[in-house]
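Example record

One chain of 64 residues, shown exactly as stored in the release files.
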Amino acid sequence: MGTAVAKQDRIGARVPRDVYATLCRAARLTGATVNQFLVQSALKEARAIIEREEMLRLSARDWN
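Predicted structure tokens for this chain:
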């Protein structure tokens, strides 16, 4: 039996050194690699934005 390999895409970013240092520190504090930290943080924010934008907003008058 073979094993399935998930296809992955790559994301790269150049950031100022102080930004990188902050990301590294946060990653260390959470026990993650910088890459894991970036992906987890970005995914959390992306999901929040998508949920917020897809939510139907009704005024009280429209609700009634």
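Notes: The chain has three helices and no strands.
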